[in-house]
UniProtKB/TrEMBL annotation:
Domain Condensin complex subunit 1 C-terminal residues, every copy: 916-1091
Cell cycle among keywords: yes
Residue ranges of coiled coil: 1183-1210
Region (Disordered): 1122-1141, 1310-1335
GO-annotated biological processes: cell division; chromosome condensation
Primary localisation category: nucleus
Keyword line: Cell cycle, Cell division, Coiled coil, DNA condensation, Mitosis, Nucleus
GO (cellular component) term, any one: nucleus
Organism: Forsythia ovata
Localization in the cell: Nucleus
InterPro entries in the cross-refs: ARM-like, ARM-type_fold, CND1/NCAPD3, Cnd1_C
Pfam family, one: Cnd1
Protein name in the entry: Condensin complex subunit 1 C-terminal domain-containing protein
Length: 1335
């Protein structure tokens, strides 16, 4: 040891840089001393140093310099030597410990962990940079890889250190803390805490190849625990430093360092807090600190919430409740805190015990969970869309989690405002809230609201508000696929649990139609839901009714119930209503398509057909058991319809005897074979109910016929032949209802084709009976036309009185039957043309032409020359059917279509019959598919039906043209798009909904630039202004353009036009909005300033005013996203990249500012001068528009309006006036609200709060706005002064000046006296406490 001491002292005396040999010799000496507890050698070292005139501090300074300036291995070795020296016996720690040396130690530890490639493990390199490069195929690099690896190993071994040395350093650091009290050195304490907390973060980089990471974290925990002892100063301050340093670790993404930070707080500091109140206080404040440091992005924010809850779970219950109250207060703060509060509340409610107060004596009304739920419901109406969406999502999650027991379900119902006992009260019921959120402008909010609807369905067992169900039904047609899926799921959940008539109707009118959706997954979901919720229910009802029928008959003998009651008992609740609603005319087409799709996929089971037959047979048996006449029996509505659809794919499951029995039953009943004339209806009003009943029977016969045709392939030959003969015989009588004719024709054709030996034989059979029916139909028409001609000729020789009373009545009575047959014959001809387009119609067409031209003054036919009145008036049904049949004929024959198409267009324009116009529109749509080129020139005539007086015609035209546009049979060109715009403000709500869906969903995807390209033209067209065309329209075109305009400056017309404008603007991308803004300025404002737009004309003024309103609307305004955390939260909530969105927003904001300076402002300045010269009333609109445009650029107005200083001053004044007026209005409302809640009795009343007390009750939002706060102060002062005056006057009014005892003034000159009187009069008229802002 003497030699070692000599070398140490010699090296120290030489004052050369410290070498590793010097440190190793000193470490050997210190290790020997610490291990043997023999300090003789160390004392000899101290003596030797003193003999060389060296102080002991020179040794510590040398070690400190080695820790600072040496390589990593020397720094770690120096740190180990320094700590060993402090631990050595008899070392003067109090005098030799210096903060500089300790900070050098901490820097050495940090530097060692910053480069993980210098860490050695048992003499080998743990990780070598660049040793292995994947994907490189360079041969030259492969040759040199061995040399590079050897060089790196040598380099790392020279400067590296072993992990065990670092572990030894930390162990000895812990022991040193027992000797050195860092309370005297706060910088050292702070540095130590920061360094130790950073070690796990830096050590993670090499922890995968380092098995001692756990031991390293354990040593860090022990060091931190040592720091928290009372010897190192105030424990609260030390705990705050530790927690502050651990917070970044806790907020890291999932890693080992985060686990270390959370584990230390939960497992060690919380336990220390139980014995130290100061540490406990610091730990209780940690969740609040993490709240302030929590990031705004979704994933890191979720980890922060998870970390907060890990800490809060370790608290006592009282502390947990206190933190819950803090979260409630957070919900009233900034957007990021409100969002974090919304995320924390559901986790708190699930993690902390008894959130609903079920185990508390005070009950739920005093529980902390009530306050949290109130906050969550309030945040569902937050101003920020991202917070609204999160609040709704978390509320849905909470409802699902807390609905386990009956007690909790009952409490939740009260909280949500359902039932008689409402626990909390908030603005609007939950149903109103959900209705608003389901129609929210943000997709994420709508989706979250629909999820909440699903959860509430389970809570309430489906008992939701009817208006809310309609809103969910509307969301099933949302433009976004995700919203449609969520709405389908929510509505189906209600339908699955709560089968009522209202729910059934809404589901069937909303979900089945989505079988036509563009998204394949939605079509499949629609099929699955229809199979589960409709077909399976009906099938189960059929099985149940057949099995319980005998027991029900037994009960009938004991209880005399009504038939309706027994039917309800026989079938499960709601099934009959479901069947009835299926055959609704708006639902039936979609049901047909779903059944066809399921049948093609072979997903229809024979059981459904069998059970439908059981339902029909059971209903008939129950009817007969009540001693009812079988002729008046009808199957449950919808049963025959559904059977007719499924039987096409399940023919073997339908029993022929069943069909034969019911066909005979339905065929025997003939309540009204003839259509009644108006005269007969007047005579026999009692037949109305019978006729309506016969229509239901006719519908059942139609569905039965369709079922028979579907299963005809399974029929025996002889019954099939008899059935075909029966069908033909009934058709030849021409006495059926029109709904039955087509069914008979189709069934007859099916029987012929399926029973013929080959296709040629089937075609010949069909052609044979078609010609036979056409011949007889022609004879019926000839008889009718001859009959009415003879009647009219005979009536010409009678006097008017005789003609009206005698002959006319007899003629009407004799022709009513023939007219009914003629109508059926005409309809039959049309049905025959559909099934056999090659039939010979030479004898039919002239007759039909005679009928459809009977009302024309220039008709060439003399067939009805003797008719007193045209058939259009005497036989309107025949007239309409003739047009319909002629349309079917033209659809089959292109030459006839080319000849008669102008006749159809003429009738469409002139006809006063809505049914005929509707039929012609349908025909023209079919022609557009078959003969596109022929119809294209008449498209402007067809679109005039969009403004028809009949709602049905308008809706039919809109639907048909929309389908043609989607299939590209019609192009969006010319005036077509502009005429469609008026459907957005149609008087019919259904048409408005269809138009919203067309423009918001279909057009946005199919023609995204259409709204942008036609926007400016739409402004002119809607105002009926032709300034953009440069020419005036002719009188004929003027009436047509006026039909498709919304002229006028009244509020109603302007609001309609603005609705159209905003709808178009919502379809545009941000770059198109910017371009539209420029186009409106260039083509309207610039045109007006250049006198190209006549401002004396009313339409020109309307165009200019609309342009001002559009430019100042929020829809055309592009969000700048200037650092708005709330907008970033919205982007994240909708799954977007908030960073990219903010960058794009800044770029667009710069483009908007550039456009304002270069283009918009000069136009506004020139236009303002023009309007001022003409003293136009539009100056106010211009200034208001400019004020709104520039309110976001208040600090840049000097640069924007450098060309017109006067305009700049006016705008600044207008903005200040607007803000002051708004502040006064806000203040007045706030003061009025406080006055209603406080009783003003007397200023001297001690219970009366003064103005400062009232100001303290103002919301923080109002206090933060200086202008509003100032206005509130003025309003409070005015209210106080008025109260004082009322108290002084004891409620009496102030007496007039003439009644007061005042000294009389000497008279002056007349001018002075009059001036004084004016002053007094002005003071009388002046109202008290008015601000002078407006003066």
């Amino acid at each position: 040891m003497d030699e070692t001491i000599t070398r140490i002292v010699t090296d120290l005396e030489s004052q050369a840089p410290i070498s590793s040999s010097f440190l190793k010799d000193l470490q050997v000496l210190l290790d020997y001393t610490l291990n043997t507890n023999d300090s003789i050698d160390l004392e000899n070292l101290y003596t030797e140093i003193s003999s060389r005139n060296l102080s002991l501090s020179s040794l510590t300074n040398a070690i400190s310099s080695a820790m600072d300036s040496g390589p990593t291995n020397i720094s770690i070795l120096g740190s180990k030597v320094y700590l060993s020296l402090l631990l050595s016996p008899n070392f003067p720690v109090f005098t030799q410990f210096t903060p500089m040396a300790f900070l050098s130690l901490l820097r050495a530890i940090r530097r060692a962990f910053k480069n993980p490639y210098e860490v050695l493990r048992e003499g080998t390199v743990s990780r070598i940079r660049g040793a292995k490069k994947k994907g490189r195929k360079n041969v030259g690099q492969k040759k040199n890889s061995g040399e590079s690896r050897d060089f790196l190993e040598n380099e790392v071994e020279e400067g590296g250190f072993e992990v065990r040395d670092m572990l030894c350093v930390l162990e000895r650091l812990e022991m040193v803390l027992g000797l050195v009290h860092l309370g005297r050195f706060p910088d050292c304490l702070k540095g130590l805490v920061q360094a130790v907390c950073d070690i796990p973060v830096m050590a993670v980089d090499f922890s995968q190849n380092l098995g001692s990471f756990g031991r390293l974290c354990d040593l860090c925990s022990r060091v931190l625990s040592e720091v928290l002892k009372a010897e190192h100063g105030n424990q609260g301050d030390s705990a705050a430093e530790v927690l502050k340093a651990l917070t970044p670790l806790i907020l890291l993404n999932k890693s080992q360092a985060r686990s270390f930070g959370l584990g230390y707080v939960v497992n060690r500091m919380v336990k220390m807090g139980r014995s130290s109140g100061e540490i406990k206080k610091a730990v209780l404040n940690l969740p609040k600190h993490i709240v302030r440091k929590a990031p705004e992005k979704a994933e890191p924010r979720g980890l922060a919430v998870e970390s907060i809850m890990e800490v809060v779970k370790a608290f006592d219950f009282e502390d947990q409740v206190e933190f819950a109250d803090y979260v409630v207060k957070m919900s009233q703060g900034k957007a990021q805190f409100r969002l974090l509060a919304v995320d924390l509340i559901p986790v708190l409610m699930v993690s902390v015990r008894d959130p609903l107060g079920l185990d508390s004596d005070d009950g739920f009304k005093s529980s902390w969970g009530l306050r949290c739920l109130e906050v969550l419901i309030q945040r569902c109406s937050d101003i920020t869309a991202g917070i609204r969406a999160r609040a709704l999502t978390n509320l849905a999650q909470l409802v699902g989690s807390l609905s386990g027991s009956e007690r909790s379900r009952a409490v939740l119902k009260g909280v949500m405002g359902f039932g008689n006992d409402r626990t909390i009260s908030f603005e609007g019921a939950i149903n109103d809230l959900l209705r608003r959120r389901c129609m929210d402008e943000k997709a994420a909010v709508r989706k979250a609201a629909l999820v909440l609807v699903s959860k509430l369905t389970n809570l309430l067992c489906g008992g939701l508000d009817e208006e809310l169900l309609k809103t969910v039904g509307i969301d099933c047609s949302d433009p976004l696929v995700s919203i449609r899926k969520a709405a389908i799921s929510a509505l189906s959940e209600v339908f699955r649990i709560h089968l009522t008539d209202t729910v059934t109707k809404e589901w069937l009118h909303s979900v089945p139609r989505l079988i036509n959706d563009n998204e394949t997954s939605i079509q499949e979901e629609c099929e699955n839901l229809f199979l589960e919720l409709v077909l399976d229910r009906v099938s189960n009802a059929g099985s149940t009714s057949s099995s319980h029928y005998e027991s029900l008959l037994h009960d009938l003998n004991e209880k005399k119930n009504s038939l309706d009651m027994n039917i309800e008992l026989l079938y499960p609740e709601g099934v009959l209503g479901l069947l009835k609603e299926i055959c609704d005319r708006e639902v039936a087409p979609w049901v047909k398509k779903i059944c066809t799709s399921l049948g093609k996929k072979k997903r229809l089971r024979p059981k459904i057909a069998i059970d439908l037959q059981n339902i029909i047979k059971t209903s008939e048996s129950l009817w007969l058991n009540h001693s009812k006449q079988v002729e008046k029996w009808m199957a449950p509505p919808g049963a025959w319809f559904l059977l007719s659809e499924v039987s096409a794919f399940l023919p073997k499951a339908v029993n022929w005897e069943f069909l034969h029995h019911h066909w005979q039953l339905l065929d025997k009943y003939k309540p009204v074979h003839e259509l009644q004339s108006p005269l007969e209806q007047d005579v026999n009003e009692g037949m109305v109910d019978i006729e309506s009943n016969s229509l239901a029977w006719a519908g059942d016969r139609v569905f039965l016929l369709q079922t028979i045709s579907n299963v005809s392939v399974e029929l025996p030959p002889e019954p099939a032949a008899d059935l075909a003969h029966n069908f033909l015989k009934r058709l030849e009588e021409f006495n059926m209802h029109s709904t039955e004719v087509s069914a008979h024709v189709k069934a007859l054709k099916t029987l012929c084709k399926r029973k013929a030996l080959n296709s040629e034989e089937a075609d010949s059979l069909v052609m044979k009976w078609v010609h036979q029916l056409l011949s007889k139909a022609s004879q019926v028409l000839d008889m009718y036309l001859s009959k009415i001609t003879d009647v009219n000729k005979d009536s010409g020789f009678l006097t008017p009185q005789t003609r009206a009373s005698e002959k006319g009545t007899k003629a009407a009575a004799s022709t009513v039957t023939l007219e009914s047959h003629a109508i059926t014959a005409v309809y039959t001809i049309g049905s025959l043309i559909i099934v056999c387009s090659s039939a010979d119609l030479k004898a039919i067409i002239p007759v039909l032409y005679t009928i459809i031209t009977s009302g024309s003054s220039d008709r060439k036919s003399s067939r009805l020359a003797g008719a007193a009145l045209p058939l259009k008036q005497t036989a309107p049904s025949l007239y309409i059917q003739a047009w319909l049949t002629m349309g079917k004929i033209c659809l089959a024959d292109g030459k006839l279509a080319k000849r008669y198409l102008p006749l159809f267009v003429q009738e469409l324009e002139k006809s006063d019959c809505a049914a005929l116009r509707n039929n012609i529109v349908v025909m023209m749509a079919d022609y557009c598919v078959r003969y596109t080129a022929l119809v294209d020139c008449y498209m402007s005539k067809i679109t005039k039906c969009l403004r028809d007086t009949c709602e049905l015609v308008r809706r039919q035209t809109f639907i048909l043209l929309s389908r043609l546009l989607q299939r590209d049979y019609v192009k969006w060109r010319g005036v077509l798009f502009l005429r469609f715009l008026l459907c957005l403000v149609d008087d019919s709500e259904k048409i408005r909904q269809l138009a919203d869906f067309l423009f918001g969903n279909i057009l946005k995807a199919k023609a995204p630039l259409l709204a942008y390209n036609s926007f400016v033209e739409a402004i002119f067209v809607l105002n009926d202004c032709n300034a953009h065309t440069g020419r005036s329209n002719a009188q004929s075109l003027r009436n047509e353009t006026r039909l498709f305009s919304i002229r006028g400056n009244d509020e109603n017309s302007r609001s309609k036009r603005m609705h159209i404008y905003t709808t178009l603007l919502k379809q545009m991308a941000p770059e198109h909005l910017l371009a539209t803004f420029a186009k409106v300025c260039a083509e309207i404002l610039a045109a007006a300033s250049d006198s190209m737009l006549c401002l004396e004309d009313v339409t020109g003024q309307s165009v200019l005013q609309d342009a001002f309103i559009i430019l100042s609307s929020k829809e055309i305004k592009i969000q700048s996203n200037r650092g708005s955390s709330s907008e970033a939260a919205e982007v994240e909530e909708e799954g977007g990249d908030s960073g990219g969105a903010l960058a794009k927003g800044r770029a667009i904001s710069q483009a908007v500012r550039k456009s304002l300076i270069q283009n918009t402002i000069p136009i506004f300045i020139e236009l303002k001068r023009l309007l001022e010269s003409k003293n136009s009333p539009l100056i106010g609109s211009l200034m208001e528009c400019l004020r709104i445009l520039l309110k976001d650029y208040k600090n840049e107005i000097d640069d924007l309006l450098v060309a017109d200083r006067q305009l700049q001053k006016e705008l600044v004044y207008d903005m200040q006036k607007f803000e002051s007026t708004k502040a006064r209005s806000t203040a007045a409302n706030a003061v009025a609200t406080m006055q209603r809640s406080e009783a003003y009795h007397s200023p001297a009343d001690p219970k009366l709060p003064n103005s400062s007390a009232l100001k303290s009750k103002l919301p923080e939002k109002l206090k933060s706005d200086s202008k509003v706060a100032s206005a509130v102060a003025d309003a409070l002062a005015a209210a106080t002064a008025r109260s004082v005056l009322r108290e002084v006057n004891k409620g009496a009014c102030t007496p007039p000046l003439s009644a007061m005892g005042v000294p009389k003034l000497k008279s002056c000159t007349r001018e002075t006296a009059s001036r004084g009187g004016d002053v007094i009069e002005s003071l009388r008229r002046r109202q008290s406490f008015d601000s002078d802002d407006e003066n």
